[in-house]
Amino acid sequence: MTPFPRIVFFGTPDFAVPSLDQLITNGFNVVAVVTAPDKPSGRGLVMRPSPVSEYALLHGIPVLRPLNMKDPQFIDELRSFRPDLQIVIAFRMMPEQVWSMPPLGTFNLHASLLPGYRGAAPINRAIINGESETGVTTFFINEHIDTGKILLSEKVSIGPDETAGELHDRLMRSGAGLVQKTVDRILTGTIVEISQESLTAHSADLKTAPKIFREDCRIDWSRDVLSIHNLIRGLSPYPGAFTELKTGDGLQTLKILRAAPVKSGQHAAPGEYLTDGKSYLKIGAGNGFISLLEVQLSGRKVMNTGDFLRGFGRIFSETRGI
Question: Which residue of 191, 218, 237, 275 pairs with 281 in a disulfide if CB–CB is 3.0 to 4.6 A?
Answer without folding.
Answer: 275
